[in-house]
Predict the structure.
Amino acid sequence: MPYWSRGRGPVPEVSRIGAAIRSEKERLWRECPGLGLQSLWEAAAGADIAANTRVQSLRDGVMTVSCESGGWACELRLVADELAARLNASGPPERIEGLRFIHRARLGCKARK
């Protein structure tokens, strides 16, 4: 008989599957934080901003985001508190206390000759 027709609430197997999924999600956040951070950023920042930015890291509550240009970095600094609040509302692996926006050219790219 299907679990939804029993009328006795959740079935233990379903609860175990949910717990296993939560456990695996937490493991992935610890071992591969970049996998989930970019999608979390895209959802909080929106498609236009996400198309011009990339999450670099999340360490000690500070998320570092690289931007296509210095202009993007400056503009995003103005709305950093709002973006951090949106990110925290969507359940990051650790609380985001601040956002750091950097221009991609500062990531070690060689200057053109």
User: Anything to note?
Assistant: The radius of gyration is 19 Å. Strands lie at 53-59, 62-67, 98-103. Confidence is low (pLDDT under 50) at residues 108-113.
